[in-house]
Amino acid sequence: MVNTKILVVGVWMKEMVFKDLKINENIIRAVAEMGYNELTEIQKDVIGPVLSGRDVVGLASTGTGKTAAFSIPIIDMLLKDKENSQEYNAIKALVLTPTRELAIQVGEDIESYAKYIDIKAGAIYGGVTPKRHIKVIKREPNILVATPGRLLDLIGKEAIDLSNVSMLVIDEADRMLEKEMLKDVKQIIKELPNKKQNLLFSATMPKEIEKLANSLLNNAIKVEVKDNINSDNKIKEVIYHVDETIKTMLLIDLLKEEEFESILIFTRTKKKADKVSKAINIANIPGMVSKAIHSDKNQSEREKAMEKFKAGDVKILVATDIAARGIDVKGLSHVINMNVPNVPETYIHRIGRTGRAGKEGIAITFCSDDEEEYLDGITKMRGNNDGK
Question: Same domain for 176 and 321?
Fold first, then answer.
């Protein structure tokens, strides 16, 4: 077994907000603008040990906030390192993810957290031309997010320098096992400096992943966090298989026919959020006033929309994933996904916002033909045990 210790000290065990963290104020500022306030369970247990330089193995299901748990302390540590390092414009932290979609999402998250500081992130993955990778590398990212196969290609071509990596994150390790990436991961590890901080996250701990953890981690702290959809959550999930072109029409029909108390609607893009919100208001459904929130809205606009939503003056909030982070409205009756997220973690995070505190919630998802594979991925990730 991995040599582990559970950190049980002081403030890390109780309610904690990001302002309590001893990290750069500009990171706190960026996090606040994304709507984050209180730390999730894994963030409470992981951020402190990472900041202290410890190796960590995290057993965490999707949707628990683990990306912020490792990204935020890494950004803060690299910022402090900037003052002393001779090799600052180099890749100092490497994050390995099993899929292109997750690599993109993690890269975007890191850039959002580092919005107001001089830390750069880049992502490389399959399905794009080599020119794209060269462009990413030329930007000299401090944090590189990569899928193993594509990174190994660049290593083989001597097109990337990983000699300054001081922090390695292996995210969703068990999914790498499913995709037969473990061999590539082990080869990449051989190319990295021996002295580095290692963080490994996995929803489960199969023998192969346990062996990897034993060989990689040094006196690691083990953190285990359960899925945010637990026995206290009562969520009824409904899937509508429908053509993309009539999703908004179906939404309007549902709003007219069904009873809704408060609804959080997710869209893939900011433009779609505006269009859906406008369509709802044009439909003039009694009691169904809608507001859209996303990163193009200023902080004041978002705060006013949230205040009206919480007060019940606005029944429907239409949001992108990033803008919706940190929203915690008691008694949220429905979550509606206008699209199936291409990352299972995002789906779990979205629907987990309803059905809280013992109340029943309903999650409705519109799935078009080209999103069926994403739905299959969610079902597979959950082990097909969710009753659907």
Answer: no
Q: State the amino acid at position 350 in one-letter form.
A: R
Q: Starting at the edge strand that comes first in sequence, how are the strands of the sheet with 290-293 ordered?
A: 234-241, 360-367, 334-337, 263-266, 316-319, 290-293
pLDDT tens sequence across 111-141: 999 999 999 999 999 888 878 888 899 888 9
Dist. CA 62–CA 60, nearest whole Å: 6
Question: What residues does 200 pair with on adjacent strands?
Answer: 57, 170
Residue 196: both structure tokens together: 């580095």
Question: Is 179 strand, coil or helix?
Answer: coil
Looking up tokens 């859906």, which residue turns up?
276
Give the pair of three-digit tokens for residue 320.
């992108």
- pLDDT (tens digit per residue) in 22-58: 899 999 999 888 777 788 888 989 999 999 999 999 9
Please report which helix (H) or strand (E) contains residue 267, including its range.
none
Domain count within the chain: 2
Which of 225, 259, 291 is where one domain is finished?
225
- 169, 296: one domain: no
Indicate the SS3 state at residue 328: coil
Give CA–CA dist 172/119, Å, rounded.
24
Residues 190 and 256 in one domain: no
Q: Are residues 366 and 341 in the same domain?
A: yes
* Alpha-carbon span 327 to 207, nearest angstrom: 38
pTM: predicted TM-score of the whole model, two decimal places = 0.69
Range of the domain at 139: 4-225
Q: For residue 121, is it within any domain? A: yes
Inside any domain, residue 388:
no
Q: Is 239 found in the same domain as 126? A: no
Tokens 């992108």 -> residue: 320
H-run or E-run covering 379? helix 372-381
- R_g of the chain, CA atoms, integer Å: 21
- Which amino acid, one-letter code, is at 142? N
Determine the Cα–Cα distance for residues 27 and 4; give it in Å rounded to an integer. Answer: 29
CA dist 264 → 131, 318, 337, 342, 385 (Å): 39, 6, 9, 19, 25
Which stretches of the chain are assigned E, i.e. beta strand?
4-5, 56-60, 93-96, 121-124, 143-146, 167-170, 197-202, 220-225, 234-241, 263-266, 290-293, 316-319, 334-337, 360-367
